[in-house]
Amino acid sequence: MVTDQRVLTAEKPEPLTHGSHGVRLYLQRQADTLPRYLLEQLMYAMFGWIPTIIGIGIRAIMYRIILSIKGWAAIENHVRLRFANRIKLHHGVYLDQGVYLHACPNGIEIGENSIVMHGAVLHVYNFRNLPHAGIRIGKDCLIGEYSVIRGQGGVWLGDRVYTSPFTQILAVNHVFRNPEEPFIYQGITAEGIIIEDDVWLGAGCIITDGVKIGKGSVVAAGSVVTHDVPAHTLVGGVPAKIIREITEENFPVNGRKVYF
């Protein structure tokens, strides 16, 4: 596991009611302050819809007002950002259409030349003061279409990590040990997930909270990973188990053409 220290909180969720309380709760889930909310929404209304490379160029300049961009980043139209001041994009980052980044404390950081594909969701959603919440993605990574990363316990991706479509990386878990009480009142655990360099996650696989995946490993499509994965191994299944070590002998090309 990533850490022996679990975060267990049992706050009762606040209902989204009508009136001023509901409005206040909504705004607290969108931005740090009302002025920040208004500023960010103004930027989206003015520039977020503009298509083609023209819109990408305009957002690369104007979105610096609301988020941190180191160098130049390409943001397509209809990308949704929340708590934009807690988002940091490094040079060469590409956010495809339909991407949703919800940062809040402690934010989202995406490394150089990393790509987040259409429909992916990166969601920190830390409203319980969890100490390690946040999402950090290294260089040259690819987050596949409709992948979901939940960062309440903290998610750390190394360099050259590829997630295939519909991958889920979920650094949070509900407690449901008391059958007499609704699980939403029993708290959550949030241990965190670490995925080291050069890992490939197959389509539809799920990485559960508390897991560390070692460098150079591969997770087969449709797997559910519930325990740590050693470096340079192929795992698969539900729950995922080690299939074999990754070596040239175990994975021969057998005359197939390899493209680079």
From TrEMBL:
The chain crosses the membrane at residues 42-62. Gene3D superfamilies: Hexapeptide repeat proteins. Pfam families: Hexapep_2. The keyword Acetylation does not apply. InterPro entries: Hexapep, Hexapeptide_acetyltransf, Trimer_LpxA-like_sf. It comes from the Bacteria. Keywords: Membrane, Transmembrane, Transmembrane helix. CDD domains: LbH_MAT_like (cd04647). This is Acetyltransferase.
